[in-house]
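Hi R.,

Here's the chain you asked about this morning:
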Amino acid sequence: MNTRPYIPGDETRIMTIQRYIAQEERMHPGATGEFSTLLRNLALAVKVVSREVRRAGLVDILGKASTSNVSGDEVKKLDVFANDMIINALESGGQLCVMASEENETVIPIPEEFPCGGYAMLFDPLDGSSNIDANVTIGTVFSIFKRVSKGVRGTVEDVVQPGYRQVAAGYIMYGSSTIMVFTTGKGVQGFTLDPTIGAFLLSHPDLTIPKRGNIYSVNEGNRQMWDEGFRRYIDYVQSDDPATGRPYKGRYVGSMIADVHRTILYGGVFAYPGDTKNPEGKLRLLYEANPVAFLVEQAGGRATDGHRRILDIEPTDVHQRTPLLLGSTDDVLIAEEFINGKR
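And the predicted structure, written out as tokens:
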């Protein structure tokens, strides 16, 4: 397949996300078009979310919605809009049997008046929403599984699946530009939204994370709550050793998607470890860790909780949390050695 990046002014090189999905579908003679339609509908929904993010300072949409989500986090008005937009855009398409959102306490059933499809989608409608009012990069994260339940309607069984069963995952990052990065298990592609024509254009084909980087990304304000092994790892990357490229540069945005995106592009390690306050970790396994772990592995990197592969974790709850350590394979392996007392 031709996955050459779009170059402004060279219209012969344009690869829209719709064209890319259609070409992928033609490579699978038995494809029904259900999965491709689902991805196209999602792309449309996030265009609307992107528009609202862009004009958030001009309308009464910034600020708190006076509620909290099931995890106890404060919900912002834009979170609510993004959540509703994605649900409304996808529930009637006939591709999904059930949905689950970080903002909803239980799974989101497909209404009886709409057909029930063969996929389940999980999503974090607006990752990093604590940064909304500060105009810092935020994003949408999604994960797609094939249906496993046998009834007429989808159930929680369809969303509480281990990450290795994902058929697609990705994120949409609303920053200086809006970029959609996703995988269907055959590498990672990035599409940037061109607002002048309203289309996502291939801008980052076949993303590959460097085997080793020189950046570490972690909230060092939690240092006193980390275990000794992880503290020693951070001391290691901060120490001076030109032969191994140390010290590493510290970069931490506080929006997971922004930090993960930079890590995929430039390498290094992103970590949100468990600590004495949150021993099971802070990030959600199904809505955050699984999709970014799938992406990082497809880009040639590694994603674990410090002891085991993220995609092998068997979830037991729709809002289960997990520590997360991902990035360049060599960097993550070294971090695991410190965490497990091997260094």
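Residues 215-339 form a domain with the D-Maltodextrin-Binding Protein; domain 2 fold (CATH 3.40.190.80).

Let me know if you need anything else.
M.
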